[in-house]
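Fig. S4 source data, part A: sequence.
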Amino acid sequence: MSRSWERMVERNSKKINKQRKKEGKPSVAAKTQQGDRYLGRNYIFPILLVLLMAFYAISFSPWKNKIQQDTTMFWVTLGCYALLAAFYFLRRPYLAITRDTLETRRFSGYKRLNPAEIRKIVLQPGYVVIEPLKGANWVFSRMINRYPLSRMGERLTVFAELHRIELEVKAK
């Protein structure tokens, strides 16, 4: 379908969904962009936070010395580090590839790239690098975030061919 046709279908489905909502009927399933989502697992940063907790616990060790102060804040701090480590472990990084966008989540929020904003895609053993025209490169690593790079590489190859984006495949 052409993009103008897709926009027209989306506009009409919104109109029909509004009417159906007023009538009390369930909405027609809105057309969502079908895409592939490749999940990783962040484990480096949580391990560093747990090691930092262990360092604080060993170096300050409030249970050894007779401390005249209340140690509640110490334990609250360690608990916050543990919660932060669990948060980063459970919040899985991802790369979503739809028909005409790439999307991921960074520290500063969700990032999306259109094909016109991508300079090139580099596939190399252990890494996938997406180089945008503006900003820093998006690097997806097998070692750091446990991404399924072989499947990501196949899908990015199709994406690059579809949108005529430069694709560089490096071997060892």
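Fig. S4 source data, part B ends here. Strands lie at 36-39, 94-97, 102-106, 109-113, 118-124, 127-132, 138-141, 166-169.
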